[in-house]
Amino acid sequence: MVLCTIVGFSQTKEAIITIENNEDAPIISKHIYGHFAEHLGRSIYDGLYVGEDSKIPNTNGVRNDLIEALKGIQIPNLRWPGGCFADTYHWKDGIGPKEDRPSMVNRWWGGVVEDNSFGTHDFLNLCEKLGAEPYLAANVGSSTVQEFTEYVEYVMHKGGSPMADLRKEHGREKPWNVKYWGVGNEMWGCGGNMTPEYYANIYRQYATFMTDWSNSDGIYRIASGANVDDYHWTEVLMRDIPKSLIEGVALHSYSVIDWNDKGPAVDFTEDLYFKTMKSALFMEELVTKHTAIMDKYDPEGQIDLIVDEWGGWYDVEEGTNPGFLYQQNTMRDAMIAGTSLNIFNNHSKRVKMANLAQTVNVLQAVALTEGEKMLLTPTYFVLKMYNVHHDAQLIPLKLNTPNYSFNGENLPAISASASKNKEGVIHISLVNIDANKENTVRINVADSNLKKVSATILSSKALQDHNSFESPKNIVPKEFTNFKLKKGTLEITIPAFSVVVLEGKK
Ligand code: AHR
């Protein structure tokens, strides 16, 4: 069931939104607003983790400013340690006294040597500090069933087992009770170049030995999912893996213009912008089609779709290591974030988690750091504005939107999603992706009986605008008043390339 129907986007001059009341609409899981931090470039080392001896204020080696920033968006979960890195990671190398930990070469990302000073305890303690659920993406590609199951035992078993005793020896008495486990990553590629049939069998084997060790939340096993539109991959996993062994199927899709020529993160043309948005909006088709396959094998909806890598991917910033994937973040990224999150909200019946790639200093980051300085990106502020949807009930919308046209091609200019929280407050998030034109949106709210409306906007003068270390507050959300509520219709005029979140109270 698609819960935001785009009924047409060719003729109309103004966007028309109709609220479809549906008491049975799903809850938008807060985990749709999840994040991903890989051992890649300056994501962990010299990103989140600066070490206990750093001059930069930190808690157990993790930057305090980042801890506060991530709490500020109520980060619901964090996926770690990869990515491609996950299938080269041997967890026992990252426990025990730091000085005794062996080094390793990060073969996927720049070939740098890592000293394993940020390991499982460091990560899980950080998640506790953040109030975020950890999502461990564990090694299948270069591991064994034994190594994998011992990992589960290490973090989940109460005590009186060899792995729980080892954990206690390393200073952690109580288990962490990790619910979310990824069974390998991108098994069609860096995880082992497997066929779906082969991986489905391997998955069954690993999943069989994953025990929740009486964790009250159970264990939630996520199969490595399809690359973009590889529908065959989803079909085979859904067909070949028994429902008793799986809770989620993943999907990875990045907004990228061309893998061989990704274009600059900041100095892009409108042509590149249009292409990026075309790629980002393709998520609607992807989620719809993967969901349809899942519906076929799982009409009861027992297995969730987990979009555990998404975001914009451009060329690295000049002068930075090409293996570190460091890129700036502009209003274009705000457009990707706003539209993608609307898509996930509208598909929240099947999509129960998504993880933006990646948290700090890598790809579409929410924060960038340089020495002691840290900045929050436009993407960060979209996530902050959209916090209101966490665990709220979806309000299905019917949307009729004008086009954003460029070089004879059209995209829907307006993207929208809405929800109602436990207190009955309604939130509607709107994105106008048009690079040149403001757009008027009319929302029929007659049935909602709204009396008080307020709004926030993220907007800027140029699409290429961004926050820099010199000017970190260039782009921040502001109060927005360019709307009127008259006779049951809410009329809003949204500037070009802007995100607006409306709040309506009775
Ligand atoms: O996020 C960067 C990389 O993209 C991940 O390591 C991998 O899973 C994907 O291909």
Topology:
Layout: E1 4-8, E2 15-19, E3 34-36, E4 58-59, E5 62-63, H1 64-72, E6 77-80, E7 104-105, E8 113-114, H2 120-130, E9 133-138, H3 145-156, H4 162-169, E10 180-183, H5 196-208, E11 220-227, H6 231-240, E12 248-255, H7 270-297, E13 304-312, H8 331-346, E14 351-357, E15 367-370, E16 373-376, H9 378-386, E17 393-395, E18 397-400, E19 403-406, E20 409-412, E21 414-420, E22 426-432, E23 439-444, E24 452-458, E25 478-479, E26 483-486, E27 489-494, E28 498-505
Parallel strand pairs: 1-18, 2-23, 3-6, 3-14, 6-9, 9-10, 10-11, 11-12, 12-13, 13-14
Antiparallel strand pairs: 2-18, 4-5, 7-8, 15-16, 17-21, 19-20, 21-22, 22-28, 23-27, 24-25, 24-28, 26-27
The protein binds alpha-L-arabinofuranose.
Percent of sequence in beta strands = 25-35%
> So what's the CATH class of the largest domain?
Alpha Beta
Question: Could you tell me the mean pLDDT?
Answer: 95
Number of domains: 2
Based on helices, strands and strand pairing, what is the structural class? alpha/beta
Bound molecules: alpha-L-arabinofuranose
Low-confidence regions: none
CATH topology (level 3) name of the largest domain:
TIM Barrel
- Please give the largest β-sheet: 8 strands, parallel, barrel
